[in-house]
Amino acid sequence: MRACDLSAIGILDTVFLGGPFVDSGYKVRRTNAFVVAVNCTQSGGTCFCASMNSGPAAAGGFDLSLTELIEGSRHEFLVTIGSDNGADLLRQVSSRMADDSHLTEASNLLKACSQRMGRELDTRGLAECLKKCYESNQWENVAGRCLACGNCTLTCPTCFCSTIEDTTDLGGDHADRFRKWDSCFNGDFSYIHGGAVRPTIRSRYRQWLVHKLGTWHEQFGTSGCVGCGRCITWCPVGIDIAQEAMNLRIRGDRSAAGGKEN
Amino acid sequence: MNAVLTQVRDNRSNKIEPVDPMTPAPCRVMRRRRENHDTFTLEIAHENGLVGFEFQPGQFNMLYVHGVGEVPISISGDFRKSDRIIHTTRDVGTVTRGLARLRAGDTLGIRGPFGVGWPMRSAEGRNVVIVAGGIGLAPLRPVIYQILAARSHFGQVALLYGARTPEDLLFRREFNAWRRKGIVVHETVDRADGSWRGHVGVVTAMIQKVEFELVGAIGMICGPEVMIRFTVNGLRGRNMAGNDIYVSMERNMKCAVGFCGHCQYGPEFICRDGPVFPYDRIERLFAIREL
Question: What is the ipTM of this complex?
Fold first, then answer.
């Protein structure tokens, strides 16, 4: 598991375990998980974990973490032990003690990786800035391209929304309730009697981005974005969350009506 | 807070049993009353000898119709009658139509109560103005019951109630009793019929009929968002402060415990942070379209 995903699990822990209610299903899976983190020495073209302080090295929350060391024909992994379970497992694998040169080599590789991110997102004051952007004309701009396919929410490691599907057998004696993943880009996501609260793609994209980068801070004390870049990679029309956030920062206070907000 | 309330007392062993917040408790309809053409009230009791249902006015339950689905419905009953859970709702959707088909003896699932209710504690010793539109009186009726149960603890109290037609006015059979016990009730309808001798017009026009002082009073509003907007303006026109005006909000809801994400309203989860909010806390959001 990569550092960005591990950060995402930390964020989901806050959502499902940190509030007044505990998600018992999540808790069981979480308690039983054994996590091997793989630190990234090479970033992808859409990565910006360095901007989000979630990588390229896993800071914690793992049982074992690996950093790949390659030099000529030498191919080794520097292993960091994060838990007793991790230490137990490592004892069953042949290994030798790392020395300072290995630690320095790994540190240099990770530092170099964090300086070669494919994307960058300036998060300073972003959550506050987004509060003033609700009526920005930038949302029309992105809504003109967005297909509301939901790929970004499907690939995002922190998108936690779910719905319930109810089924019965033909006799009606037996009923099941399934909790299923759901996307805020779906039309009926916001349905209340009389219609959807967010009927337009403009309002749905706005909900997604403002939640991810803005209101998440107020709800859970962190950003909802870990900079994995998958929403960029998997967007069929190439919408780039880092670029959209920058557009909002620069031009977000221009309202659709053409005037300045606030 | 809420987690404490999602427990039930086992009457036989007298033990408090924690309940997974997503698991509906089996319940049975004890009585069903039709209120008007599309609105009905269910009196519900826990199965399995579980009693002791406690709630705060303004809180809601998730009601599950077997095989059909679950909906959030506010509690419209009297907090003193804890052996019965009372819900008043309209049959306007798939699940509420399923609820409308239930008769005495039928089973359903309930989990709750959830959410933050009306500010009963801070209303004590003060004048209270309650403004309701249509079915919006249902979540406010427990407020009225609580005031009536301790009438001397509150100042002057007015209920301003508007609905589309006289037939849509709920709980009218109780209004005279409420008036006798010292609650001023002003009714209005958008469209009158031949029998109507009362006021015609929007509920916000009733604010000027309140004769007592509203500065320092507590306001409680439940109705469509457009009605809330104009009511807040009207109450502010009487120099009420935004943090003395409370409103009940509504959004799609699947879980009621902050897991499903559906009820987000800016940074707020309606299920957990609401459904009742002091208006000044959400004023910034209220002006935003399609939030």
Answer: 0.91
